[in-house]
């Protein structure tokens, strides 16, 4: 069984501080198998993974990501190699896609990942075709951003690709937390139940017929946020990289939330495969 006690002290230290910080974990490589699949709203497909390797998986905070490793175009499965506490990806680099850890249960020996379903996506098409017993390798997570709960308010902004992470955040916050969560989806059919604190305003923004990553509904919602003088706000923002430019300006400029008190991540970019940028 993996010793997890060594990370508790560092996580507790960050939680007691003023700003968030990334806490690294040993980067694992686990071979897992699909236990079950279930739709989550009309836009997400939840896959629950199991297997003995789940016992070596590290998961402590909402902001964690893993990479699913797929065969290359020539059909060969190339895996990263273990290198101490990290992984060496080599050249040619194995084909992989990054996803949020939605749930990890040591007691059940299970790992949940929610896939945003869209045509043409490598991981999306794999998820649709996956059945119980399908096997795959998962690398990571390399760590997670630990955020103190001492902020006066929290601001969460994202499209459906960020919904699994936002949902995990809202479920993990103290029940007295306050703030806003703005989530862009196609329509009400993609809304899901979220166990959010009563003090968090969860607002669903419907994109309708607009192509994903082309609207400004999230930016408009963020422009409507008013932060009382003297209050500290933590902002977590993720989605299509182009849409984040305007939101970033509002968060940094109008709201005055700096890099130490925020994470802004481009989860994807229109026309670009396996895009991921964060600051």
Automatic annotation (TrEMBL):
Pfam families on file: FAD_binding_9, SIP
User: PROSITE patterns, alphabetically?
Assistant: FAD_FR (PS51384)
Tell me one GO molecular function of this protein: oxidoreductase activity
InterPro entries referenced in this protein's UniProt entry, alphabetically: FAD-bd_FR_type, FNR_nucleotide-bd, Riboflavin_synthase-like_b-brl, SIP_FAD-bd, SIP_fam, SIP_rossman_dom
- Which intervals of the chain form a coiled coil? none
Give residue ranges for domain FAD-binding FR-type: 22-148
PANTHER family, per database record: FERRIC REDUCTASE, NADPH-DEPENDENT, NADPH-DEPENDENT FERRIC-CHELATE REDUCTASE
Protein known as: NADPH-dependent ferric siderophore reductase
Tell me what organism the protein belongs to: Nocardia fluminea
């Amino acid at each position: 069984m993996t010793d997890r006690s060594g990370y508790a002290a560092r996580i507790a230290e960050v939680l007691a501080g003023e700003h968030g910080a990334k806490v690294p974990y040993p980067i694992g490589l686990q071979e897992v198998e699909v236990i079950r699949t279930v739709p989550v709203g009309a836009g997400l497909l939840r896959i629950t993974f199991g297997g003995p390797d789940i016992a070596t998986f590290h998961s402590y905070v909402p902001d964690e990501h893993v990479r699913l490793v797929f065969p290359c175009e020539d059909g060969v499965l190339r895996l990263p190699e273990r290198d101490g506490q990290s992984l060496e990806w080599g050249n040619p680099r194995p084909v992989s896609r990054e996803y949020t850890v939605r749930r990890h249960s040591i007691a059940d020996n299970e790992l949940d990942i929610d896939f945003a379903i869209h045509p043409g996506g490598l991981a999306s098409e794999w998820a649709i075709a996956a059945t119980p017993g399908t096997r795959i390798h998962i690398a990571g997570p390399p760590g997670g951003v630990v955020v103190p709960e001492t902020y006066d308010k929290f601001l969460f902004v994202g499209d459906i690709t960020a919904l699994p992470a936002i949902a995990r955040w809202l479920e993990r916050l103290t029940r007295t937390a306050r703030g806003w969560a703005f989530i862009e989806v196609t329509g009400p059919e993609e809304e899901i139940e979220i166990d959010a604190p009563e003090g968090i305003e969860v607002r669903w923004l419907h994109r309708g017929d607009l192509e994903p990553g082309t609207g400004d509904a999230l930016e408009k919602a963020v422009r409507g946020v008013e932060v009382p003088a003297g209050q500290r706000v933590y902002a977590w923002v993720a989605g299509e990289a182009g849409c984040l430019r305007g939101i970033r300006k509002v968060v940094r400029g109008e709201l005055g939330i700096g890099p130490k008190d925020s994470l802004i991540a481009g989860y994807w970019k229109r026309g670009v495969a396996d895009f991921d940028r964060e600051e």
